[in-house]
Amino acid sequence: VKTIQEPDWENVTIPRGLQELSPWAARLCLAVERFTREILPDAPQKAPLLIALSGGPDSTALALLMRLLAERLGFTLAAAHLDHGLRPESIEDARFCEDLCRCLAIPFHSAAVDVEALAREANTGIEDAGRRARYAWFAQVSEEIGAYAVATGHQLDDLAADQLMRLARGGGWPALGGMPAWDPGRRLLRPLLLTPKAELIRFLQELGIPWREDASNAQKHFTRNRVRLDILPLFLRENPGYLETCARLWRQAAMDREHWDERAVEAETAGSTPGFLPDTVLCAASAALRLRLYKRAVEALGPGQPLSGTLRRLDQAWEARAVGKRLQFPGGKTAEVRPDGIRFHGVDTQEG
Amino acid sequence: VKTIQEPDWENVTIPRGLQELSPWAARLCLAVERFTREILPDAPQKAPLLIALSGGPDSTALALLMRLLAERLGFTLAAAHLDHGLRPESIEDARFCEDLCRCLAIPFHSAAVDVEALAREANTGIEDAGRRARYAWFAQVSEEIGAYAVATGHQLDDLAADQLMRLARGGGWPALGGMPAWDPGRRLLRPLLLTPKAELIRFLQELGIPWREDASNAQKHFTRNRVRLDILPLFLRENPGYLETCARLWRQAAMDREHWDERAVEAETAGSTPGFLPDTVLCAASAALRLRLYKRAVEALGPGQPLSGTLRRLDQAWEARAVGKRLQFPGGKTAEVRPDGIRFHGVDTQEG
Fold it and tell me: Taking CB atoms and an 8 Å cutoff, what residues of chain B touch A235?
């Protein structure tokens, strides 16, 4: 366990603006500012932004960067920390976050839970229970302060690991591109998603800002840590510029997602509904588009991810004009080839 | 170095048809037959197929499978082997291939080269020189016998490694999906591309057919071997069904490639030419399509792969209506924003 000496907050000076930074650090700030504007172009002035703060290097750098950019970006800041109670030093982590926020003049919200007990109760893994408890706490604080978004410290190394995990688990395109930088449903914002972790560390070091290390990041019983510690270094060995290629892949996936979303909207204009895809729409579509329309139609009916093999068999049945053919999807959902198109049923619409 | 005992060809019996196989082996044959028809639907009857034979398990299984399926698929078979002269046992490999082809009643063509000398002369790597020499030999035999296609033994484990290598090197989508099963330009056919290597081995074992091991496959100074030996096992550890997900990803990439190809043909109908993309076409296109049209336009002008970052900057210049803005691509190619679209120049058309 690597611990950090008691930070000497008396001697930490927070720069008041970008002009007080080195050219390198100022460029980093400007890149984060540009990316944040790009992914969140319509944020209102003085939008309250809640920073999800663990005290690790990523979220510490996030807090510092947002402090430096808040005025330029028009954010009002707050921070929230959840003590998971999993490690003896977690109380010190909480105190570190509080001290950091005092130093940065950011209102600080904290709570403590017993994640081990929560995992036992919910009969789930520690990592999963921790994530749920954390995001529930962020949502609670968000509501209290009327936050516009919750900003997390996910950075480019996290994105690279996320892409590899999605690949390992059998994700398709564009999902393979990795987590979004802005998730409007959960109001999650990831301003550092295209910034390498090494740059965040260098930034903190240059400014003399301390951070906390989480020893559980080295534990290999979490898939994410195995991917981060075992697989990602092998890709970096093959290609030292691998992180940049991850950022490019992410951008391409975002563009393709937009392309497919636009085509789906066109299909809706042309008469498709969540429960029905008419032949008029399907006949005009490429196979690539048809499969994505099926996927959307199944997903719109409720939880349960359709398997790509089943979607393919559905398309083969449709191409063969196998009227009456029915395919089953997880979550009790079905699709049926009809004389005029494909009808999708959820559990509740089985007789529809 | 793992060597194999002298094969006892006298006691090897080649089944005369699928009915002599176990149900499992017959199903494997039928799956390979279905896939070959799918990827090569328009092969003429009695098309001469040249099998690229190394004597390793993959190409040995390929020769056997093609022997069993030749009549059903309408192929006339021949095989070619190139002795690379890199390993002391390579003469035995050549003799093994000859014996195998005699046993399978497949006409056999062989030659020997000194790949080490070729690599020195061309100032290139051993692996690269070997590949060039091999494919040159296959092309030569193809021409002599009027082959319709050259079939190689690439299987699903090779495809999985190819996808990981493309990812590591920064390939985009759909290139990330991996090598094609049918390359009409090079007339390369890969009938085993979605068959796991383990199934090919089991097939050979069931039928009592020997094969040769290539010790150089264990050498980690080749990127491909490092990916195959170090990275792929980690993905299989995370997901034991990983090879099937690779096959699904490959299918999705093939579909998406078709989608983008169709859109590019539409763009050509609407007035785009290899050297010019008019605003009428670009304004109707999504960003995802525009980037792919730029890529095609640059590639059509000759060798040199455009970087995706440059393509993105070109699109930003076009969106900003930055008339006169010029971007450079590898191979001396350029693109220029004009008042009515984007003009692409090769080295020879610089003044065009």
Answer: 167-168, 231
Is the model's pTM score more than 0.90? yes
Whether the CB of B248 is below 8 Å from some CB of chain A: the reply is yes
CB nearest B235 (choices: A168, A309, A312): A168
**Residue B5's pLDDT band (boundaries 50, 70, 90)?**
low
The mean pLDDT value for A259-274 works out to 90
What is the average per-residue pLDDT within A87-91? 87
Q: Which of B38, B222, B223, B238 to mutate to test the interface with A (most CBs of A within 10 A)?
A: B238
CA-nearest of A244, A260, A249, A338 to A299 is A260
What one-character-per-residue DSSP string does A280-299 give?
HHHHTS-HHHHHHHHHHHHH
Mapped to the 3 state alphabet, what secondary structure does B260-294 carry? Answer: HHHHHHHHHHCCCECCEEEHHHHHCCCHHHHHHHH
Identify whether the C-beta of residue B4 lies closer than 8 Å to the C-beta of residue B60: no
Can you read off the two tokens belonging to residue A61?
A: 């750098």
pLDDT of residue B1: 38
Largest CA distance in chain A: 76
> Which candidate from A169, A230, A238 shows the least CB-CB separation from B234?
A230
**Residue A79 three-state SS:** strand
Residues of chain B positioned with their CB less than 8 A from the CB of A288: 252, 255-256, 258-259
Classify residue B269 as exposed, middle or buried by CB count within 10 Å of its CB (0-12, 13-18, 19+): exposed
Smallest CA–CA distance, residue B284 to chain A, in Å, is 12
Q: Is the ipTM of this complex over 0.85?
A: yes
pLDDT reported for residue A349: 55
pLDDT band at A352 (very low <50, low <70, confident <90, very high): very low
Assess contact for B281 and B297: CB atoms under 8 A. no
* Chain B residue nearest residue A309, CA to CA: B248
**Unique residue bearing structure tokens 């690379």:** B84
